[in-house]
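The records we work with from here on pair a chain with its fold. The integers have meaning only within a learned vocabulary of local backbone shapes. A complete example follows; check for yourself that the lines match position by position.

:::
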Amino acid sequence: MQVKLKPILNKVNKKVNLEKIKVYSDKTVSLVTKFSDLMRKYMDILAAKMVKIGVPANVVSILGFLIGLLAINFISMQMYMWGLVLIVVNRLFDGLDGAIARKTKITDYGVFLDAVLDYVFYAGVIFAFALANPAQNAVAAAFLLFAFMSSACALLAYGVVAHKSSQNYELLNNSPFYLGGFAQGFETLLALVLMCLLPWWFLPIAIIFGVLGLVKALTIVIAAYYNFVIANKKSGTTDINE
């Protein structure tokens, strides 16, 4: 049996060149990094101009959110390209408000507002896909919302407890409260873009991303147990609720 499998495996290895895949993967990461750096550069330039004319970061956050809400309308009517355009515009405004805040002052309310608007926007887009094709998308959208809520609640609860504690836990000034890992802002945006470009693949994309979201929620729970229980015991401190 092994003799018969060898020529088949050799053919597969010839067709699937792992080295080429690695090269393409490295090139893709490099291009994404360069694009991200370029966008950040232009965002900083635009943010400097906005600061000069006195536009607050929170106003940009709210305006970007309202633009993003229009995507729900277009996606629900299966006008996916218009929905995609509005999603991209929303994300650009999300980057712009952060750039403005960094040039002026990052406030607690600004971080709070940015996080809330981001979560509502993402949930709204998922809801829009359920409206676009209830028979095909409703169950997958409900699962993705369940996973999204699980990870969002875990992140926000972690942020609240860590903020109350005097310990130096991993907290970020950015929004939402990203703690590393996958299913972050970039991955979420990528999933939404794919859903708009390939709406007939919504179900598998939603399921895959939903599973990643649940895994993320679990990793946050594990991280919280380590930081709030194990690390406290090692350092000799007590639980913040005690």
Notes: Helices lie at 2-15, 18-52, 57-76, 80-103, 108-132, 134-164, 185-197, 202-235. Residues 81 and 196 are 7 Å apart (CA to CA).
